[in-house]
Specification:
By secondary structure, the chain is an alpha+beta fold. The chain has one domain. It is built from two helices and six strands. The protein has a four-stranded antiparallel β-sheet. The longest helix has 7 residues. The chain starts with a strand and ends with a helix.
């Protein structure tokens, strides 16, 4: 189920395995594992970071 839609970028459950949220790893400075991500960018992003990541890029 989509969470946010930022210019066509939706945060959905990715089929891939659970891995580290890319925004947490680079910007927040600690790990946060997630199965969610942007279906357009194909990056793992937790629900809390989806909007922040797309506003930063």
């Amino acid at each position: 189920m989509p969470v946010e839609n930022i210019g066509g970028h939706r945060n959905v459950g990715l089929i891939m395995k659970r891995t580290t949220c890319k925004f947490h790893k680079t910007s927040v400075g600690h790990r946060s594992d997630t199965v969610y991500g942007c279906e357009v960018c194909n990056l793992h992003l937790c629900k809390e970071c989806h909007v922040a990541y797309h506003k930063a890029v």
